[in-house]
Amino acid sequence: MLGWVITCHDEEAQEMLLKLEARFGPLAQCRAVNYWRGLSTNMLSRMMCDALHETDTGDGVIFLTDRSGAAPYRAAALMSHKHDNCEVISGISLPLLEAMYPLRATLSSAEFRHAIVAQGSPGVSSLWHQQQKNPPFVLLHDLYKH
């Protein structure tokens, strides 16, 4: 089953987790990380790293963030490059997470990424989708090395 790390501004992540648990019961492999004003990016990264390791059982972890480009999204993006089957989603809402909850147990991380972006369009995106729009910068010098 895919682990979920819900990370949003203020208390929104914890509130979403509590509402999901009220509907579905205790959620295995699911953690909330609240990003409070004044919290250092180093502390946020440490909290998210702990949540990543607490939720990953080998199938992968989905970071579910509220805003693309904000501190929780950036911290998740940096971690996702170091871990297999790790996805970063932005633009989440409680109704979207409720709809996607049953798919945690059946989809791979890449399949889940595509499904949640399709379900949540147009306001939902992923790090992978953003990278497809903006491919990595390549120096011309590197193109001619042969």
List the helices and strands and how they pair.
Blueprint: E1 3-9, H1 12-24, E2 30-35, H2 41-55, E3 61-65, H3 71-80, E4 86-90, H4 94-100, H5 109-120, E5 125-126, H6 127-133, H7 140-143
Parallel strand pairs: 1-2, 1-3, 3-4
Antiparallel strand pairs: 4-5
Helix pairs in contact: 2-3
- The CATH homologous superfamily corresponds to Phosphotransferase system, mannose-type IIA component
Count of DSSP-assigned helices = 7
Low-confidence stretches: none
What percent strand? 15-25%
CATH class call: Alpha Beta
CATH 2nd-level architecture? 3-Layer(aba) Sandwich
- H-E string: EHEHEHEHHEHH
Radius of gyration: 16 Å
The strand order across the widest sheet is 2-1-3-4-5
Number of domains: 1
| Oligomeric nature of the chains | single chain
| CATH fold descriptor | Rossmann fold
Compose a concise summary of this entry.
Residues 1-124 form the PTS EIIA type-4 domain. This protein is α/β, with parallel strands linked by helices and 146 residues long.
3D structure, described in words:
With 146 residues, the protein is of the alpha/beta class. The chain has one domain (3-133): Rossmann fold, CATH 3.40.50.510. It has seven helices and five strands, in the order E-H-E-H-E-H-E-H-H-E-H-H. The chain has a five-stranded mixed sheet with strand order 2-1-3-4-5, sandwiched between helices. Strand 3 (61-65), helix 3 (71-80) and strand 4 (86-90) form a beta-alpha-beta unit. One of its GO terms (biological process) is phosphoenolpyruvate-dependent sugar phosphotransferase system.
